[in-house]
Records
---
Amino acid sequence: MQVLTSTTAVQSRALDLRASERSIGLVPTMGALHEGHLSLVRAARRENDVVLVSLFVNPTQFGPTEDLARYPRDLEGDRQKLEDEGADILWRPPAEEVYPPGYQTYIRVEDLETRLDGATRPGHFRGVATVVSKLFHVCLPHRAYFGQKDAAQVAVIRRLAQDLNFPLRVVVCPIVREPDGLAMSSRNAYLSPADRQAATVLYRSLQAAVSLYHAGSHAAESLRQCLIAAISSEPRAKLDYAAAVDPDTLQPLDQVTRPTLLAVAAWFGGTRLIDNAVVAPRAHSLLP
Ligand code: AMP
């Protein structure tokens, strides 16, 4: 696996690959890699000639009081995992390579950036949209892989890829979970043992709402109240949001008459975790 830091080196490599008609699969990450990330790498490996993984803890998507400085980092462990998965290129630029002095261009997905995590983390999706646009321009991927775990991020990236005419396919991979249901996340490492145990309430809340839906309760508000009740029953959890929304617009729905994103976020101590599930009427779930 080739390890690159320079933007121009990656971009000229990508141009060469495109010129020789080799397909590029891009997996953007912030490192501290776990099975969730590796599932994206495996999907990219199956579907592309060349797998390019970016590892960049993007400062512009962190708020001033957030965990940028203490975000988990394990470069050597990450390098080894990617090597084992057969990734071809690891791009790990220093921050000044992505945002050199004088940098002042940002991408905003105006409505979506205010919803779900964007409401709690002002500026977060502006940072995400900006860095992902730059990754697309530098890496020139044919396909780019993202996790359904970050469902609002998926909506933002799909929208920007369409709005800015990026010639690529956004591929969304399923959520990878721990055996007890907790969605894998680099931030799980922050949890105390008691909070780690308590955090399973997110998945349990989604299971309860999905069961309620299958029992015939199709009103979005009843599903939302089910999520809230489950999370509130865990004293260590502090609810941030519970939502039943359109997966593309992230706007609230009244009834589940089409695929509906059930999304939750809660604090466990100083750590904010998210999770989600999609429910859909049978006619929709049978569609390819
Ligand atoms: P991050 O390093 O947290 O920015 O995540 C990089 C990519 O991995 C994003 O597209 C995430 O949605 C995805 N990802 C993170 N956790 C999981 C998971 N548990 N299952 C699937 N994908 C994930």
---
Amino acid sequence: MHPPVRYQIVDNLAIVTIDNPPVNALSHPVREGLQTAIARAVEEHDVSLILLLCAGRTFVAGADIREFGQPPRKPHLPDLLNQIEACSKPVVAAIHGTALGGGLETAMACHYRCAVREARFGLPEVNLGLLPDAGGTQRLPRLTGVEAALDMMISGRPIGAGQALETGLIDKILDSGDIRAEAISWAQSLAASGARPRPVSAMDVPGEDCNAGFFADYRNRIARKTRGLLSPELIVQCVEDAVSIPFDQALARERSRFMECKSSPQSAALRHLFFAEREAAKIPGLDPSAVPRQIAKIAVLGAGTMGSGIALACLEAGFDVQLLDSNEDALSAGQERISSLLDKQVEKGRITANEAADRARRLRLAQAYEALSDADLVIEAVFESMEVKRDVFAALDQACRQGAVLATNTSTLDVDRIAQATSRPRDVLGLHFFSPANVMRLLEIVRGAQTSDEVIATAMAFARRLGKVGVLVGNCFGFVGNRMLYGYGRESQMMLLEGVPPERIDRVLAGWGMAMGPHAVGDLAGLDVGYKIRRERTDLPDDPCFYRVADMLVERGRLGQKSGSGMYDYQPGDRAPRPSAMVAQMIREEADRLGVAQREVSDQEIIKRCIFALVNEGARCLDEKIALRASDIDVIWVNGYGFPRFRGGPMFYASQLGLRNVYDGICRFRETLGDRYWRPAPLLEKLALADDADGW
Ligand code: 3HC
Ligand code: NAI
């Protein structure tokens, strides 16, 4: 095995190269190697300057996240970085790729920093429920000023080299294309000019940001986005220290706040998701020789809500898109929706007018299937009806070239029956986007019984190109996400009949961390969508209470925001939900008619009924292999359904709670609410009752 840190002398320079693929994370051997290399360079008389470089595709991308669950081992990163900063000879960092987390902190412990123009710099610890632990909260404000430093640490978003130079984070941009040669030459010029070590810890924090009230204002500004999270507040406290107490003391407090974050369930949940999202891309058993097909031209069928959003997502990723709808008005409405979304993105400064024009140019419209003859991938998003979809796929089979991938965006229907309408079921699969399709990160990739490995590999690669998290799921009603949603929705509907007002259910679940409460979501998505799906199903329970309130609302024309009223009332031009006295009365009368007893339901019960229903159905998906892994279910719920990231997804949350506790909770509901819906899933039961199981 090659050493993770190499040491080489070139003239008067000691070149220290970190080589720890894939991302040069600061694992224990790297820290040890760095410590030894720096000590050696200090000892060697001929060395006047130390240059720190990284091999491979990137500068250090951070601490090794895999080590966070293990006992810490010396040298600890903060101590190592203090040693680098205190070094008697100047240390220069040369950065390419991404300098993230502990990587950027390492660069800031060096005395001079240069970087290639494409390099990116960030402190993304917040995304893992952490805060920078190796002096980042103290050194960054000294280099960039307080506000820029806070923005980087609270958002976790990296900045580019131009901005890094402007804010003072780096000293020089290297443009020659040969980072090593140019960095050596810059380092030599620094040595020749007598450059001295320049410890960032000795710098003053630029004070202009911090007038009275600055931190209070800043806290108010971030309150909504950081709701429920621990580390953002602790980051702000660390930066308050940076402006008010000596560096060493502030560093000690940074360390203890980091330890508090590291041991929090939130950080465990966010670290779980980091690896879960990467694991989802790996498909066990997929033929390794299956090469993704080339995709350049995409056709989207149906220019409605989903079709236009999918088309926009594809345009944003650089594809040529043909949008087709059998209805001329729907087609032009779809085009208008796309161009108005592009205009809004320009207005908000997210893209330039030129980029918007380029996207608009790559969109073509059509009404006839002949236009699809050269498409590499067709995504169907027409009405949710098996009959309509089978007709469409039969027509696609005639119109599309051999080798084209044929995908359906159905949210619930049987992908195999749709595939059987073609002569090429191996090329057919589900690509289930979430609304709004150009925004939501999730793409459920539904494998049909005959879908080929090559087509699966193509879909996974396509998801990556769209910047989405693709998760492979099996074919059943609702796949993973919507199938589980049924249990969650069912309970939130039942509780209405038991006398819990919709606004209370929404408030409790949003307070628990869901992006929105279920009733507000229903109004946003349109209550008619679920209504139509329930009409198509033949396997609904024989239960007059099942989704009764939602059905009644639709039958009275209250479809949600789009019709101006749904579970809530809305005022024109305002999307704020207002409790409706009429709906409250309607629910009371219906509960009376159905003989549903009114009960006191605690906040805890509201949460448990909705979330345990999800977990129980998730366990069934896992048992039936509709989901490949429990972590895939977590990725789906966090990225597609507004489940709080800081709880790690429903299955991780259940493991943290203890599967036995979840099982016991479900058994208690079986006693109080009956066994129609509250039978523990066999897998949950098996694991909960096993002595040694602590997770899925
Ligand atoms: N530790 C351990 N493994 C890591 C890692 C890290 N910091 N960063 C990435 N990896 C692993 C991934 O798990 C993946 O492994 P796999 O191939 O076995 O699945 C592999 O490296 C490649 O990662 P990606 O698939 O994400 O590669 P990309 O090229 O798409 O992205 C990246 C590269 C931008 C560096 C991205 O991996 C990333 O954002 N990494 C995390 C960066 C981060 O959060 N750093 C802060 C860590 S916390 C910290 O430093 C605390 C400090 O204050 C002390
Ligand atoms: P929509 O009603 O807004 O749009 C459907 C469009 O398809 C209409 O413009 C219609 O003119 C067109 N169309 C109908 N038959 C056609 C045919 N034979 N050929 C060409 N065009 C035809 O519907 P929406 O909401 O966009 O849903 C589309 C699909 O996406 C459905 O399968 C739905 O289940 C699924 N879906 C919907 C989500 C949502 O939140 N609305 C989320 C995820 C999936």
